[in-house]
Design brief:
By secondary structure, the chain is α/β, with parallel strands linked by helices. It has a seven-stranded parallel sheet with strand order 3-2-1-4-5-6-7, with helices on both faces. It starts with 8 loop residues before the first strand and ends in an 8-residue tail after the last strand. It contains eight helices and seven strands. Helix 1 (about 20-30) crosses helix 8, helix 3 runs parallel beside helix 4 (about 105-135) and helix 6 packs across helix 7. It folds into two domains: about 10-185 and about 225-255, Rossmann fold; about 190-225, no CATH class. Strand 1 (about 10), helix 1 (about 20-30) and strand 2 (about 35-40) form a beta-alpha-beta unit.
Length: about 260
């Protein structure tokens, strides 16, 4: 199967590093012109220069801060005044870790703005072109915690569950327009985010971060954590013509970690 995204325009959130960067690179390798966005302009510039252009792709970047919805809204609205998107990858940095008793209502509001409002607003802007063109792909980067909550990620558990429920509703409404809406449920991947969470967990438990990582790997049936490149392969397929009949799904990518059906 040859996945070709030539002539497609993609917008990838949270894409200066980790899973987002791997997705952007794979979409570019598949022929898409990709706009990446995150906070670090230096890293965004580097990544744009690293991405494949052998099929005439034109890549660009946006400097955004998802943690400030008003500022993000201004930047992304300006972008859509001059650009259209065929493939939208909704991905943001995760909220702070911590259990339910450690968080207050203001924390949940901030997480809602970060994980939910930014996704819905960006999707609304992207949909106009997709509906007119009768083709589109919307892929939300979520977490296995929407099926099996992780007690140290109360904010993420709560708001990401709202995102996948919204996505399921949206998938029904736009299917007639040739637009698919899917969510990927992220397991343990080798990213800076995992390293930061492991460091905090290690401090709390009084053990080394290496020990936390070993314990994490032992939980996964494959006895390892994922390579972000593997995530890019799944997203590129979901973004392709070959995935035209797949919509409204929540697809775990976790090495078999989830035990629920």
């Amino acid at each position: 199967m040859n996945i070709s995204l030539k002539s497609k325009n993609a917008l990838v959130g949270g894409s200066s590093k980790g899973i987002g960067a791997a997705i952007a690179q794979q979409l570019a390798l598949s022929g898409a012109s990709v706009t990446i966005m995150a906070r670090s302009e230096n890293r965004l510039k580097e990544l744009v220069n690293e991405m494949d252009t052998s099929l005439g792709q034109k890549h660009q970047y946006l400097v955004v801060d998802f943690s400030s919805f008003d500022k993000y809204k201004e930047v992304i609205s300006s972008y859509f005044e001059h650009n259209t998107v065929d493939i939208l990858i909704n991905n943001t940095q995760g909220p702070e870790g911590g259990g339910a008793l450690e968080k207050n209502v203001e924390d949940y509001q901030q997480a809602f703005d970060l994980l939910f409002k930014s996704v819905v607003y960006t999707t609304e802007l992207a949909l106009k072109h997709m509906q007119e063109n009768k083709w589109g792909r919307i892929i939300n980067i979520a977490s296995i915690s929407v099926k099996e909550p992780l007690n140290y990620l109360a904010l993420s558990n709560t708001i990401r569950a709202a995102v996948v429920t919204w996505a399921k509703s949206l998938a029904y409404d736009v299917a007639k327009d040739g637009i698919t809406v899917n969510s990927t449920l992220t397991g343990y991947f080798d990213t800076d985010r995992i390293a930061q969470l492991n460091s905090k967990k290690a401090e709390k438990l009084g053990i080394s971060p290496d020990k936390v990582r070993v314990n994490m790997e032992e939980q996964v049936p494959m006895k390892r954590i994922g390579d972000p490149k593997e995530y890019g392969y799944l997203v590129a397929f979901l973004a392709s013509e070959q995935a035209a009949f797949i919509t409204g799904t929540n697809i775990p990518i976790d090495g078999g970690l989830l035990k629920s059906l």
